[in-house]
Amino acid sequence: MKKIFTILTLILFFSIGFLNVDSNSNYATAQEKGMVPGNTLGLKSDADLWRYVRTGKAGSTQMKDELAAVMIQSEGDNWRALRNGPVSTYGAIGLAGIIGLLVVFFFVRGRIKVDSGMSGKTILRFNAIDRFAHWLMAGSFVLLALTGLNLMYGKFFLMPLFGPEVFSAITIGGKYIHNYLAFGFMAGLALSFILWVRHNFPTKVDWEWLKLGGGIFKAGVHPPARKFNAGQKIIFWITMLGGLSVSMSGIALMFPFTTTMMADTFALFNVFGFSLPTDLSPMQEQQYNQIWHGIVSLALMIMIIAHIYIGSVGMEGAIDAMNTGEVDRNWAKEHHGLWVKEEDEKSGNIKPAE
Ligand code: HEM
């Protein structure tokens, strides 16, 4: 009995010794190799381990893949709070706000009529290529907007309405539409830019147009304008620059972890005195891209809703320009008087001196 007890004691002693030696040597080698997170108290300190893990750097696991090796990325909390907080809240307020404003405007001002009445004679405003470019850009934008809105708000509206299965199918389909139509939008945007940029540089006439509020608030007021008035020029440039920005951030989201566009942009801003972070991890790049993509798209949608209103129900005769391409001459004279004169001079309809 005494013998057995001695053997058991020895086994216990050696196993404790073995465990001790083992963990100590592991700890020592890990620390020497710089593998212990934070390299402070090593495996003895949970607080330091988790503090290191929360730096969002690879190294707290032994995975080779830089992204997979990041266990916790604290900036993800900030990104989520920003996306689900201010971005979606202010976006919804902006969208509801512009719709509300347009409804009020419609009831107060009514449809903007052609004051001199329709003449029955028309003038070519946009040819087939112009109209193709516009509808390619517009059609894809509308579908991108709807599928994008579903990603942000769908779970609040569509999921309770149709249930998770149908919502899931809609969202998966929407994702494909969003990803592929993005290229249609980019093509339409580029083509519209090439076709219309020459008409969109600011001139003195634009100032007069702006001073009279574009004549949209009062009947009988018709400020001068060439092919595009000042309001349209503003819409043109916001669409082009916003569209470019939303396309670039969209491409970065479509091909994740391949760009450093946000860090590069921040570095550029810092030249002008900002102090934005430029040492962004690949994950942070994606998060900033997503937030930017969301903000710019929502801002574009808010503006485009107003554009759609004025181009359709808000103004008599406007839609013809993008429908058949031919607009009524009286409409054209009231809204783009200088352009009608230029066109008539070109076609010999009237002499330059007139
Ligand atoms: C879906 C409904 C839309 C309608 C009914 C509509 C209607 C129109 C009309 C009638 C014009 C010509 C105005 C004129 O003769 O001077 C126009 C021009 C234009 N549209 Fe649209 N549009 C729509 C959507 C869009 C979208 C989604 C975009 C951009 C993403 C867009 C961008 C433009 C631009 C840049 C112009 C030239 C500048 C201007 O007239 O403001 N449109 N649109």
Explain what the structure shows.
67% of the residues lie in helices and 2% in strands. By secondary structure, it is mainly α. Among the domains are: 35-72, no CATH class; 75-126 and 200-347, Fumarate Reductase Cytochrome B subunit, CATH 1.20.950. The protein has a two-stranded antiparallel ribbon. The protein starts with a helix and ends in a 7-residue tail after the last helix. Mean pLDDT is 89; it is low at 12-31. Bound molecules: protoporphyrin IX containing FE. Protoporphyrin IX containing FE (HEM) binds next to helix 4, helix 7, helix 9 and helix 10.
Task: Give the structure's gist in a few sentences.
The chain is mainly α. It has 12 helices and 2 strands, in the order αααβαααααααβαα.
Helix content: 55-70%
Arrangement of strands in the largest sheet? 1-2
Helix/strand-derived class?
Answer: mainly alpha
CATH topology of the domain at 75-126 and 200-347: Fumarate Reductase Cytochrome B subunit
What distance lies between the first and last C-alpha atoms, to the nearest angstrom? Answer: 128 Å
List keywords for this structure.
single chain, 354 residues, mainly alpha, Fumarate Reductase Cytochrome B subunit, two-stranded antiparallel ribbon, binds protoporphyrin IX containing FE
Secondary-structure map:
Elements: H1 2-32, H2 46-53, H3 75-109, E1 122-124, H4 128-162, H5 164-196, H6 204-211, H7 230-254, H8 261-271, H9 282-311, H10 320-323, E2 326-328, H11 329-335, H12 337-347
Antiparallel strand pairs: 1-2
Helix pairs in contact: 3-9, 4-5, 5-7, 7-9, 11-12
